User: Fold these one by one.
Assistant:
Number 1:
Amino acid sequence: MERPFRSESDEIIGGVCGGLGPYLNVDPLILRILFVVGAMLNGIGLVVYVLLWIFIPTEETGYDDQEEVISQNVAKMLERIRTLGRDTQQALGGTSARQDGGALLIGLAFIALGVLILMRNFGLLGWIRHLWPLVLIAIGAVMLLNSMEGKE
């Protein structure tokens, strides 16, 4: 039996569904819908998609060296994330996150919220709830120290 590959011609994000579709003899659109539903229900769809993106090579790279496959896939994933970020930034008004501290702060807040929701879905949030007071105290202390340095 042939091994699965990620598609470079039928890719929307990472080519996972475009490559798995022919391998499983399923329409890639159905796989895409299943991954989105899985991501929305409990986050597992996103986790599985990212893992498949990391471990399944493209047809061009093949399965020669798994470490090389992972290294290339992670590099391509990071480049794709950067590209999507730039495209989203331009679509939302084109301001640079480096120039606009508010956009950077909002972006970080969304990332933190997403991580917290994902951790809650996997039942990993129990111990973190005891750290929130310490995190809030630390953030407040840093903000106060920064504001005091500016007044001296």
Number 2:
Amino acid sequence: MRMNLNLIQLRAFLAVADEGTFTDAAIRLGVSQASVSRAINGLEDALTVTLFHRTTREVALTTQGRAILAHARRIVTEVETLKSAASRAAAELRIGYAWAALGQHTTTVQRRWSERHPSATLLFVQSQTRMAGLADGTADIAVLRVPVDDHRFEVVAVGSERRVGAVCVNDPLAKRRSLTLTDLAKHTLAIDSTTGTTVPELWPSHDRPQHLRHTHTVEDWVNVIAAGHAVGMTTVATSKQFRHPDIAYRPMRDVPDVTVSLAWRRGEAPHHVHELVDVVREVFCFVAD
């Protein structure tokens, strides 16, 4: 059996069931009583059941009508939820990040974006994955600080950040104004091999840290260093967003800056993404090659 039913029919069915009369249902829906009658007749034909007992005095659900009432209500609710989700998606850009969003520039970017696009919200979503939620659909756009070699994604550089060393305030290194790779190599190094920007290959082969402490979230990384169990290296964005009274962040003197990029699925560029790239570059004072 092929059913040919639609949401207009289901909404009419719910309105009659709730209001008790075709007249009141028509008023609720803002249509004519004849339109409600046609919708109910069409739904009954599609389902091959009688939904209402009709008399000159009242309209009451039949046994079959009562049996499908909850199902009809759930379908209409799910459709409305779907429409709301689609509407929100069109009005917001979900920006995924693993560590520190855009660091000290985050608020400035949000403010400038709101001034230019008041109806399109930037929503920052943390995701402890290498692609910052882009691969699994959690984010529309990802802030990345690690190299990406995946043809599925388009990656555009938008800025750069200095690296900083992170040490416990009780460590003698905390008294220095700046640090070197050699300074950190003598300690246990906390790294996040999935999303972090620090890898042993940044050190010369003869002077690499001998002991690594693997962490899996930014909070783990911060806690390990604050407790004095390890030292770390990250970008200045982390030092701005994850300040801790027991951690001293010091500039690194002898290691390259980190490139900050925005990424999205190739061929599926989110609405306004290129304008977002321009805003972020403007805040970072970054000039593309």
Number 3:
Amino acid sequence: MTSAVPTIETERLCLRGWRNEDAEPLAALFQDEDTPRFLGGSGSYPQAWRTAATEAGHWVLRGYGAWAVEQRESHIFVGCVGIWHPGEWPEQELSWHVVPSQRSRGFATEAAIASRRYAYETLGMTTLVSYIAPENAPSIRVAERLGCERDGEVDLSGKTRLVFRHPSPQAAQ
């Protein structure tokens, strides 16, 4: 495997590899009052740093992972989006997490489309899912905008998650 993380640019965003300085703005995600319950509890700067390191390490172990996402023009950190597949996950998941100050701008959808295209066209994946907490209405709306369909439920680490199946590579184009 390689640790090289490709950079992808969209109209407004840059999906790039992780940097040490990403931990500070990522900590805002963990300190948001709503987000921690979907990500496994609240956190701090040290937790955010470990998360960034885990995301970077995923690229080394799997050859793919989540990108740090920033606005192209301003370089403001937006969040992280990409393919997540820890050992116990049944399938590769397309996940998105946007810091509170950058939400409701369509960034999750824009970055997820670019990430899904990379998974299908570059990695040759033929299916992706997104696991979403039933009460996470904003993420469910993103999944719907991405053309996902409900495909049952799964237990992940003792928590029930809805399974949203992404369109096939042919249907997603």
Number 4:
Amino acid sequence: MNKSFCRAGIAMGSNIEPRSLHMKQAADFLHGVCEDGVFRISRCYETDPVDCAPGTSSFLNAVAEISTSLSPEEFLAKLQAYEISQGRPARHDKNSPRTIDLDLLYLGDRVSEAEHLTLPHPRATSRAFVLIPLSEISPDLVLPGQHQNIASLASQCDDSGLRLFSPK
């Protein structure tokens, strides 16, 4: 039986030191679960916190795209299990500090409005820390329900809180 593969977009973020190590380990994890050879990853950006408590540390953010044959629910469970294995509590306050955050942005052309999983991610097209990195690896992608490609959406977003990260 032949497997059916589709592209999955994953937003990665960390704001607990060592942030760059958490991001590298998450990229290695995603590379390891990639099927059928498609693996792309953006550069890493330092980002001002969005909708977080005052005094929250800045984030490192990137976006990866991999191929997978898993269902959205299976893939989400794999991402969440990895987060927990890296010290993120299974139950956590919204926008709380995190060692690693892996958000499923899209899975092929699948659309879901389940309580635990909305695809495409409801804020993917409004966040510079998602759009700018995603435009590096999939500029021509048009998410389900959108009329503009990622490059066009990225060119219209406010990227003032986003800086290319260069380790010291």
